[in-house]
User: Which sequence fits this backbone?
């Protein structure tokens, strides 16, 4: 394996943004027919490196070689011409076009002035078949699931003769089944001698799919290793620069009185969901994607209007018709979709952090106390170790994990009684994951009630006090921490009850 | 150097205005004359006031095409109240209230009715123009009292009264946008409506409010125009919506919402005013003026786009 020649070599790449050195002499190689895992904590510079490779950013220093020859990448066009293709996390397909139209967008087959639809459809069919994708090329893209869209995106990349395919956290929005399908596709790509660069924070995935790994830390190169020569612990210590004790810290806390009670909640496919939550308790909600967990959260939070059921906070029935009402009643909700439902990308770290709690900063004449905002913001930047060049940095420029921490700070500032947190560590590195669990435990000690929706088995098992499992809009099981295990959760999650 | 560039970018509209002034004063010495400058400011004031309200709407990602018609309706209302009742206070108050109500009408259709702002205010534009024609029977209302014409024509300490009004409106708007919760919500709404709502912001009421503000500023514009001319014409203010939008855009506010400033809008309005005045002083025909104005807008937006990359 060692004597293979790399198809891609990036050597001593540096890149600075105003106030941050994102990459400092970083190197990366990729080999044909292999998957190179690119790992590192949030903000380590992975995405930046890939954006340089795909022509989105220009490097400040360093050289890029493809097939041993030095190349200049000055734009997305150059990268495409060189056979480099990136699967964005934000999908770039046009939802109102069909699959085949998307596949051939910009490369349409024409006969004179007329589109040759027949040929395009037929060719698309061949591509789709090759990947066992059983949809008609004439299907509208908007009718596909996220996973299927991603599949189309990958097929599109390959249909343009890509030699190097970059996947930046491709599985964050996929169901288990879809993830499996992605891995099958990756194996097919490997057989076609395509080089793959794979970014992910999920350890199991990395060990399953990668042939080698490269680790970055704080914008510097830590090392490249054959996957056979590393263990999970070694990987983590390469990434965070120290050993990580207990990855899923659990703390025992005396539970208080019932703080939230949900009775017979129903809405669309959600049927009669009832449960309660105590002070000092983390209630995990497990289930497969699409089992209705997020819907339940949004019903409690007033984003959706329930058809039936009632909600009690501290024993009193409350009327929640909008998120505003929910917040007034001490409920906070952290969305699973950071970009769409959490961040205001154009605004600064400070403004994103303050937006749900501005009322607390109003002085005379409704004037906002900016000094206090700044000092509180700095406080939380320190407390949650958020990596940002300044409180005024535009949040778009932060790495995913740090964006998540800003949103957590937003809700902590609100000092809620009940915190509903939906996929709290999606796209977050191991070190930061632990920090987030520590934060949740801290809140638990303060007597808050926490509902944690998660698709990560280890997380659910590791830090919940109690777990309820949902299947197709219903609760199919409730498990105490003591009796919880993966098999039991999966059994309930697929709808089997005892 | 980096810092200098950042500073230059921040004040790009101001720098643009400055250069425009220099070029014009080199070509025609009549420009740099205190009377002419005060004249420019007076002429700018109506557009500036309307553009301030428009900024709120555009910052949320909306647009208000009905401001010209609101100006006409409220101007006519003020004029008829003055000529019949001769109560200055009542005339002004009622005009402002009607402006706010029309704004609320637009705003509710946008927020609760979920109709696109362009459609709502395009319809509003023709509806309220029509209302003005019906109300005035298609003829100008004139014969207004001195008290009222004072607003548009008097000077206080040498400064034209409309300029003072504009300045006050600007201060209030600046305070609202920069110093209050409401202002932050406007930006959040324009940046990402879902996030804003899930942060507990009543997005519907913010959306409605910005149209109310735009309605009020259009009414202030109506009062100034009517008192300046001394009569209310049913086709007053037609086309003003475009000048206001141009001012907002020239001031660096993004039509997509979430980005921009009130100070920028004032400078945008000044750029248009100075350009108009300069071209007039140079005896350029109105036909050409219109072409030049359009080109300047395109140029400004092009420069903006280039620098944002
Ligand atoms: N356009 C930009 N302007 C300023 N700083 C930036 C910009 N893009 C990235 N950065 C900074 O560069 C660093 C590296 O960010 P990058 O997005 O590459 O991290 P990452 O390794 O992909 O992290 P994650 O795992 O969270 O996605 C971060 O500190 C980030 O704040
Ligand atoms: Mg990244």
Assistant:
């Amino acid at each position: 394996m060692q004597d293979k020649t790399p198809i891609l070599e990036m050597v001593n790449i540096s890149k600075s943004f105003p106030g941050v050195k994102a990459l400092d002499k970083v190197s990366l190689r990729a080999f044909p027919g292999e998957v190179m895992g690119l790992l590192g904590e949030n903000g380590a510079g992975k995405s930046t490196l890939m954006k340089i490779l795909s022509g989105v950013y220009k490097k400040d220093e360093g050289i890029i070689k493809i097939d041993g020859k030095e190349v200049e990448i000055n734009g997305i066009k150059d990268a495409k011409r060189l056979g480099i293709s990136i699967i964005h996390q934000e999908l770039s397909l046009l939802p109102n076009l069909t699959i085949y139209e998307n596949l051939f967008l910009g490369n349409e087959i024409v006969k004179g002035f007329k589109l040759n639809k027949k040929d395009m459809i037929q060719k698309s069919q061949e591509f789709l078949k090759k990947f066992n994708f059983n949809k008609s090329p004439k299907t509208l893209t908007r009718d596909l699931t996220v996973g299927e869209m991603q599949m189309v995106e990958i097929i599109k990349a390959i249909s343009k003769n890509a030699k190097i395919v970059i996947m930046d956290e491709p599985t964050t929005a996929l169901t288990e089944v879809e993830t499996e399908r992605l891995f099958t596709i990756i194996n097919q790509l490997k057989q076609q001698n395509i080089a793959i660069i794979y970014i992910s924070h999920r350890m199991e995935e990395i060990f399953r799919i990668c042939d080698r790994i490269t680790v970055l830390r704080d914008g510097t190169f830590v090392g490249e290793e054959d996957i056979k020569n590393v263990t999970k612990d070694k990987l983590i210590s390469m990434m965070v620069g120290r050993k990580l004790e207990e990855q899923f810290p659990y703390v025992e806390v005396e539970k208080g009185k019932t703080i939230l009670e949900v009775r017979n909640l129903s809405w669309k496919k959600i049927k009669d969901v009832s449960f309660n939550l105590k002070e000092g308790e983390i209630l995990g909600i497990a289930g497969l994607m699409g089992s209705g967990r997020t819907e339940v959260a949004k019903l409690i939070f007033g984003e959706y209007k329930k058809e039936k059921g009632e909600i009690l906070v501290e024993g009193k029935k409350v009327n929640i018709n909008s998120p505003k009402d929910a917040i007034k009643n001490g409920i906070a909700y952290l969305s699973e979709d950071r970009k769409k439902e959490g961040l205001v990308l154009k605004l600064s770290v400070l403004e994103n952090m303050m937006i749900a709690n501005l009322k607390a900063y109003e002085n005379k004449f409704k004037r906002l106390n900016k000094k206090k905002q700044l000092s509180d913001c700095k406080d939380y930047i320190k407390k949650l170790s958020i990596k940002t060049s300044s409180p005024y940095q535009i949040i778009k420029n932060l790495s995913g994990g740090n964006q998540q921490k800003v949103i957590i700070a937003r809700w902590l500032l609100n000092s809620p009684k009940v915190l509903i947190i939906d996929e709290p560590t999606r796209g977050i590195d191991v070190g930061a994951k632990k920090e987030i669990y520590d934060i949740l435990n801290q809140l638990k000690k303060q007597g808050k009630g926490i509902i944690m929706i998660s698709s990560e088995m280890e997380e659910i098992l590791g830090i919940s006090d109690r777990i309820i499992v949902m299947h197709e809009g219903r609760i199919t099981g409730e498990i105490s921490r003591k009796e919880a295990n993966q098999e039991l959760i999966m059994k309930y999650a697929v709808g089997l009850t005892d | 150097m980096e810092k200098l560039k950042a500073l230059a970018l921040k004040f790009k509209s101001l720098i643009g205005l400055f250069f425009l002034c220099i070029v014009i004063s080199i070509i025609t010495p009549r420009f740099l004359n205190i009377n002419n400058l005060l004249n420019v400011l007076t002429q700018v004031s109506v557009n500036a006031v309307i553009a301030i309200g428009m900024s709120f709407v555009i910052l949320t990602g909306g647009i208000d095409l009905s401001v010209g018609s609101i100006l006409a309706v409220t101007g006519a209302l003020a004029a008829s109240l003055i000529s019949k009742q001769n109560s200055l206070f009542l005339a002004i108050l009622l005009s402002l209230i009607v402006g706010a109500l029309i704004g609320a009408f637009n705003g509710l259709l946008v927020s609760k009715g979920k109709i696109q702002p362009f459609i709502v205010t395009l319809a509003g534009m023709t509806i309220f123009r029509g209302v003005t024609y019906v109300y005035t029977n298609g003829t100008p209302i004139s014969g207004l009292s001195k008290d009222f014409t004072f607003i548009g024509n008097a000077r206080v300490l040498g400064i034209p009264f409309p300029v003072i009004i504009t300045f006050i409106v600007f201060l209030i708007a600046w305070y609202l946008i920069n110093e209050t919760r409401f202002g932050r919500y406007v930006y959040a709404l324009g940046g990402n409506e879902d996030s804003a709502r899930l942060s507990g912001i009543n997005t519907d009421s913010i959306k409605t409010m910005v149209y109310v503000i735009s309605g009020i500023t259009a009414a202030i514009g109506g009062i100034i125009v009517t008192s300046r001319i001394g009569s209310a014409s049913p086709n007053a203010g037609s086309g003003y919506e475009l000048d206001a939008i141009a001012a907002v855009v020239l001031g660096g506010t993004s039509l997509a919402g979430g980005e921009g400033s009130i100070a920028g809008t004032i400078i945008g309005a000044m750029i248009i005013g100075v350009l108009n005045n300069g071209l007039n002083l140079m005896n350029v025909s109105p036909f050409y003026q219109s072409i030049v104005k359009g080109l300047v807008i395109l140029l400004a937006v092009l420069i903006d786009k280039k620098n944002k990359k």
The mean pLDDT of chain B is 92. The first helix of chain B runs from residue 2 to 10. Residues 231 and 263 of chain B are 31 Å apart (CA to CA). The two ends of chain B are 18 Å apart (CA to CA).
